[in-house]
Design a protein that fits this description.
Order of helices and strands: EEEEHEHEEEHEHEHH
Largest sheet: 6 strands, mixed
Distance between the termini: 35 Å
Strand content: 15-25%
Structural class: alpha/beta
Number of helices: 6
Strand order of the largest sheet: 7-6-5-8-9-10
Shape: globular
Length: 201
């Protein structure tokens, strides 16, 4: 589905820069999902199903700003649960909130994210919720790059992560359907070996 809406883009000659500072020849733009009702509904239903099955004690849903605000709200609506979203840092005006919405202390929360790269920004949202007194049961996301760094960071933080799909499956499908060429696959293989170093020489 991500390939069908061209959410996956390859630009080895003009790489994308991530928030972590890494350069990447590939980018998965999950925000495009919102513009396609069929795909949006599928993602919403899959994330909700994962939460129901894996986190049955959930009492609220929190989305990570900005990419997962809409997905989180859709999932919360489907589950008929309270929703809030978490900013990267407290707002510098108005109420100065980092968590937008109203969740009572000790609420059992599942965090919704659209995409996991290094995991840094996702886990900051978890930290903010815990600092506000919430009990974070885990995180669900549409897509992960599956980097060992991210897996280690989630394990260290004690946060269980479950995703609908991942980098390996998307690249596999892209190659099988001709969405990317064999030379693209080789570029991606080289990048995946050392993403923090790729494109900097």
């Amino acid at each position: 589905m991500l390939l069908s809406i061209k959410a996956v883009r390859l630009q080895p000659d003009n790489p994308f820069t991530w928030a972590s500072g890494w350069l990447s020849p590939i980018y998965c733009d999950n925000r495009k999902v919102n513009s396609y009702p069929e795909v949006r509904t599928y993602v919403k239903e899959q994330l909700a199903a994962i939460i129901r099955e894996q986190f049955p004690d959930v009492e609220a849903v929190a989305g990570v700003a900005t990419g997962a605000i809409s997905q989180g709200a859709l999932v919360a609506d489907l589950l008929n649960l309270p929703f809030a979203y978490v900013r990267p840092k407290p707002k510098d005006h108005g109420m100065g909130n980092q968590i937008e919405g109203e969740l009572k202390e000790a609420t059992k929360v599942v965090v919704v994210e659209d995409l996991i790269s290094t995991g840094g920004s996702s886990l900051k949202a978890v930290e903010a919720l815990k600092a506000a007194g919430m009990e974070v049961l885990g995180m669900v996301a549409s897509y992960t790059y599956g980097f060992p760094q991210a897996e280690e960071a989630f394990e260290k933080a004690g946060v269980r992560l479950i995703t609908i799909t991942d980098y390996e499956h998307v690249v596999q499908q892209a190659a099988a359907t001709g969405y990317i060429s064999p030379s693209d696959v080789e570029i991606l293989r080289q990048w995946r070996k050392a993403p923090q170093e790729w494109g900097k020489s």
